[in-house]
Amino acid sequence: MQPMSGVTGARVSRRGQLSLPAVLRRRWGIEDGGEITFLDLGTYALVLSCTPETAKQEVRRALVTGGYDAGLAALDDPDIAVQ
User: Fold this and answer.
1) pLDDT of 34
2) Burial 11-37, CB ≥16 within 10 A → b, else e
3) All structural domains of the chain with their residue ranges
4) For the whole prediction, is pTM greater than 0.90?
């Protein structure tokens, strides 16, 4: 798998609509529509390309197995990557 780019931005319209950047739609395989989940972390949000139930399971698994640290190490952005 190619390295993940660390940061991709988007704007929310006045009506609360968000356009998911094409690079993410392609990476996540949801070009023709699909479900994403926003995990509210208080001041921040985590966006996952899955159902809410799968998101909960994956976040739990990543935290327990060290997948979170591996994900950070895979980021292709020196400002946020962990070596």
Assistant:
1) 84
2) eeeeeeeeebeeebbeeeeeeeeeebb
3) 33-74
4) no
